[in-house]
Amino acid sequence: MHYSLLLLIMLNAIRRSSQTDGNNTSVNCTEYKNNFAAYISNFTECAIVHARPITFCESCVDKYINVLQSYHNLSTFSDEAGICINDYINLDRLQIIDTLYHNSFDLWNRAKCYECFVMINDTITNMPSEETTKFNILLNDTSNCMQATYQDENIMCFTCMDVYLALNEYYISISNINEKIGMCMDIVDLMNNTRSQWSRRCCEYRKRKEYVFLISTGFATFLTLLFYILAKFCTDMRTPEIFQQSRFAESLNQNNAT
Amino acid sequence: MDDIQVLVPNDDNDADDEDEETTSNPDFINTALIQGNEEIITEVENPSLLSSLRSRLNKKLTVNAGSLNVLSTKYESLDYDTCENYLLLDEERKKGYKFIVRKITAKWTIFLFIGMITALIACLIDISIDTLCQLKYGFLSDYVDNYVIRGQLYVPYLYWIGFNIIPVFIGSVLVAYWEPVAAGSGIPQVKCYLNGVKIPRVVRIKTLIAKAVGVVCSVVGGLAGGKEGPMIHVGAAVAAGISQGKSTTFKSDLHIFRYFREDQEKRDFVSGGAAAGVSAAFGAPVGGVLFSLEEGASFWNQSLTWRIFFASVVSTFTLNFVLSMYYGEFGNLLFPGLFNLGHFEEFSYSLYELPVFALFGAFGGLLGALWNSINYKLAVFRIRYLQKPWLKVMEACLVATMTATAGFLMIYLLNDCKPLGQDPTKFPTQVYCGDGQYNVLASIWFQTPEASVRSLFHDPPNTHNVASLFYFVIVYFFLSCWTFGLSTSNGLFIPSLLTGAAWGRLLSVGLFYIYPNKALIHPGKYALIGAAAQLGGLVRMTISLTVIIMETTDNISFGLPLIVTLMAAKWTGDYFNDGIYDIHIQLSGVPFLSWDPPPLSHNIYASEVMSHPIASLKNVENVGYIAQLLKDTSYNGFPVVDPPILNNDEVTIYGKLRGLILRSQLIVLLQNKIFNETSDSWSNINANIFRDEYPRYPTVDKLDLSEMEKTYSVDLRPYMNPSPYTVLHSASLPRMFRLFRALGLRHLPIVNDRNEVIGMVTRKDLARYRVWRHRGQMGVEELLVSKEI
Fold this sequence. Notes:
Helix content of chain A: 55-70%
Largest sheet of chain B: 3 strands, mixed
Distance between the termini of chain B: 36 Å
CATH class of the largest domain in chain B: Mainly Alpha
CATH superfamily of the largest domain in chain B: Clc chloride channel
Number of domains of chain B: 3
Strand order of the largest sheet of chain B: 8-10-11
CATH architecture of the largest domain in chain B: Orthogonal Bundle
Number of strands of chain B: 18
Number of helices of chain B: 27
Largest sheet of chain A: 2 strands, antiparallel
Strand content of chain B: 5-15%
Shape of chain B: elongated
Number of strands of chain A: 4
Order of helices and strands of chain A: HHHEEHEEHHHHH
Oligomer: heterodimer
Radius of gyration of chain B: 29 Å
């Protein structure tokens, strides 16, 4: 701690000596910094509020865009001392601004929120993407249907089957489950909830009686046992003959005996 | 070198000496018989010395097949001793130092190619297994989910059986009918080869093909086996193949590398190939080198080690390069080995965990001993009752069926569900789970065992249901035990790692219940310890296994826990039985020489060990006599002696040793008709006439000798080894043993103090004395020898 403080003081001293005027940061840059701080805190608050059930992407997209923008400002605008961000990064080991920015950035990307929104020239917008819109329509259909028929399981499973299957199929088609989960977390969470609601009440139809399967496993086991038993009783065991080695002592004894 | 008997004529009364030896001799034979009693069917009724000897001579003794203490006469020894005959001297004089430089260059080139070709074959095997498995398991996963709704699970079940049986059938037919030596993991065979035993056909190209295709078949067929052991065999075969510059199978001789056509040079290459195989299989170049060191090469020198290391590194690099190219990440070098345990991130251990690791090791040793014992019983059953090839094929197919049955029953009965998307699962199968969930057991069974090991190591805590892990351990333990020893080529590394990883993870859950707030209990770590313990308990390898596991996990700091675990596993296991490879070596009756001679055996003398009436040849010998001798005996080395001065039938006369000539040399001499009487038509005799036939010389029956030629004579002196290693008849067993082990001898003539050959000691005579250890006791037993094993 002391060393870094020392280092900071030394660096400041060096920079001061190289600067023409004594002011190390302009008013301009401080403003950008304060903006950034406000946006980061907004975004963080939003993320925590919408953590469960996850509506994080949908609710916080504006705030995230603000964070991006303010960081961008910080790193492009410059006063007479140079680019603003250089006053805040790579100066100490704490790296507060950088760390907090990357935290937000990582959180957003790990949730794959960018999949939910339209991207224009690699920059994110707050317009929901085509997949999101379509998914939401299907989801609405399903949940409306499920709510309408909530009382009776039989009716619900029967009437909502088609809409549910359509939703499920669409979800599978967009989420490329063989590799990694490819959808944004909001959708994943919504879908998980819907699925678990559905499965809890309507999955009984998967279980059937599997007599043929069980009998065939039994048959395979029986066949294997039969093979070993037959092999044991129908094969003659080999009894290899011991080879007589000729040894010195034996030849002497043989000579004596004859 | 002090073992070489100095040729000092000594006219003392040696007949008395021999009498003394015989009085000490019979005791030993007697005890040997009593020790061997449980296996001998014919009872020795009168235990007195002479009658026991007579019964041995007159009655035919038989043993049950599948006995551990019978050596087979089928196996011959490799000959690492250079035959310093005139041809060699002649060659050295002509070729000079330029030749030596060329030979060294050639050696390095060959080691380079050994590494590369081994790795390329490994890539080929890996890619084909990967592609076929994806097809198979993708199809099965779809079918299970389609048919489970209709209540027709038997349809995917039958498909699974079919997909298992077809490849296994191909693989086992290949092994059972075409090349039986390609069965199993191949490590015991390579181990024997490096020990100096010539296992017939072990490094031929036919074996290589059978092995490579067979391993793809058995892994794709879903058998509980891995491709790592076979890779070692493949490496050895590649090395033996390309270093010789010829192929007998394809009947082509490139006439290059002739100077490498001898056992010693070939053995060096084979040890390099085995190391390259290990290195390709596990991405562990150092482990490969140490494997070669631990398992074999009796000669070990700095330059050979360096070359072997070179081959290993080349092998892992080539594999890495090709695989990263195949997976579309050219030049990224992310795939150091076929089997990669993945990188462990947080791996720390504290001092108080070491006893826990030792306990894990001991448990692994117990399980390993149990596994070995069950597998031994199975192997004996197979030797006794399942000898016919079609029975072997049928057994392999049945095991493939039962693997599918066990897997499917587990998926069906244990409905262990997990939400999708927590970790990458290749083929999530729903079965009876809710939507958005997958069946954990289906995901384990519908992937290659390697991927399962990796997920057991790296999945976050609490992902696996305790019950499903428990059943999985039990089922896989027995399945892998049942599978090893089938006539298919697959190894046991992966299945035992999988079993061990599963019970290690299971025990870590138990530990977690006892000490809920210990942050150090990381299930992945204990899965690794369990895997090491299980494997160590089976194979009882030490150095190389530690290093291999360290290298595949990229974790050097974890060396101490691994060593503690493996030591505990080895000691616990050794208390009950031998390592699985040693058991299989003993079952096949290979005369294997261990590292050290049997203890307390200095009172066993050469005169007791040697074969006594020896077949010797004269310096200039009659062709007909040689041909007849070769036909009548099965010996491979014949002492060349001076004819005895006086010939008296009353006393056995021995000739004075002049040299040693091998059966192979005699056959080449007869085949090329190098007779004294036909010396005009000899054309350019040099050492290459012997090398052209190496390694498979024609048998004596193939020789075409006219009656006229049989009256001719041949001068053996320019071709024989004029200065073979010999020892006096009073040399002790450990002394001869060390000569064989260190110098790689094949024949050791025993001389009396007048330098007359009175007997011959070969590998089998020494391997007969074997140490046994069981439940803390040990002793030396004398093995029997049979022609029919």
